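Consider the tokenized backbone below.
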């Protein structure tokens, strides 16, 4: 049984690593970028602070839309061009994310534009989970790659243990078993 498991471990390790190399590399690189997204403005724009923290916002939806429409790179002509609003009363801002991944941060009291930058973290996240390619890629490429990686981990543990077990057996056969405890 052990010999058969050794053979399968080596096969799984060799072919599994080859099969999931590209998706795994993509997951590793994007995961590293997502780990440092708050530290790298290139990945995600730093969150600004507005003038009226924890106050009732003075800006209404119409004024927020008008302010964002004035930012040309955001490409906002109406509400259909806005992906989401992230209202942060504690910071006194609203983050407006356009459908083209442009992020505009506005002061909730004055309506002033505090930041206008391209946001890459959403794109990186979609690459990380595979949904960038197609929604099915998550289940048909990235999930199997994760399962293969689990198999690689298990077979790697087995392959790591093999030499240890062999050394232990050879010591026991030679009569050099573990020394008795001396009290």
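A designed sequence for it:
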């Amino acid at each position: 049984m052990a010999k058969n498991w050794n053979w399968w471990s080596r096969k799984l390790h060799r072919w599994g690593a080859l099969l999931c190399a590209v998706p795994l590399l993509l997951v590793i690189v994007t995961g590293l970028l997502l780990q440092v997204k708050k530290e790298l403005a290139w990945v995600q724009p730093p969150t600004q602070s507005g003038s009226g923290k924890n106050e009732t916002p003075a800006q209404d939806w119409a004024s927020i839309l008008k302010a964002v429409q004035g930012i040309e790179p955001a490409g906002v002509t109406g509400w259909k061009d806005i992906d989401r609003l992230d209202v942060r009363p504690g910071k006194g801002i609203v983050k407006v994310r356009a459908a083209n991944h442009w992020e505009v941060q506005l002061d909730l009291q004055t309506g002033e534009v505090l930041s206008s930058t391209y946001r890459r973290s959403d794109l990186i996240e979609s690459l990380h989970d595979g949904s960038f390619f197609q929604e099915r890629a998550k289940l048909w490429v990235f999930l199997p790659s994760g399962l293969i990686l689990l198999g690689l981990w298990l077979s790697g543990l087995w392959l790591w243990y093999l030499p240890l077990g062999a050394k232990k057996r050879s010591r026991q056969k030679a009569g050099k078993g573990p020394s008795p405890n001396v009290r």
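The two ends are 40 Å apart (CA to CA).
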